[in-house]
Amino acid sequence: MALADHFRELRGRLMRSLAVFLVLLIVSFFFYDRLLDLVMNPYNDARKALGADVQTKAYIKGATGPLMLNLKLCSMAALVVSAPFWLYQIWAFILPGLHSNEKRWTRVFVAIAGPLFLGGVGVGYYVLPKGLEVLIGFTPSGLDNLVEFGEYFSFLTRMLLVFGIAFEIPLFVVLLNLAGVVKGSTLGQHRSWIIVGTFIFAAVATPSTDPISMLFLAVPMTGLFIFSEVIARTIDRRRGRSAAEAALDDDTASPL
What we know:
Elements: H1 3-29, H2 32-50, E1 56-59, H3 65-81, H4 83-94, H5 100-136, E2 145-148, H6 149-166, H7 169-178, H8 184-189, H9 191-205, H10 211-253
């Protein structure tokens, strides 16, 4: 295919993705109240847990704040819901240039990466109220804590993205093993340091400073890493048996 044809195909896929996004954006306006409740639930749970010890209240800043809140929230919802479509468009654009074995592993990656990311986002949403409770709990007595929604929404999205991306790391470890870059035995030799690095990463990556959020990120990541090490060792053993069988076949076929 000529370069111009590639650009036309890319433009077509981008336009289709944009059209789906705009349709979902319009639909999301009708569910604005439910989306707002979904986003505010972690903050409301944290406020209930704090009780009368800390007075906190969420607010919207500026005359254009309510409109920007509506657009930002609905745009994020449309982007997330349309993700399967525009991710497929990216994959379909790249797919013709891949070999058959690369296509197979790409399908495996797509099948596993999505559930892992959603699992990480779910864990992040579950621990978010505790993180907010700890952070807002530092408010000195006699002072009220005012939470600007724009900053809160940015904090929430960062938290969920960190958890979602972190859950993808073991998958990349397996892919590196399949590519022959990392061996399972090497992972086992450095397991203790990798676990320490995982906890350090969790402490630095989580936007909140409470140990609960760090543990909820570090413990599943550690479990997923150990699971990926087991898979890597299994792949190495199979690869070793295949190489031994191939060498034996060569020796058998060679003339005496």
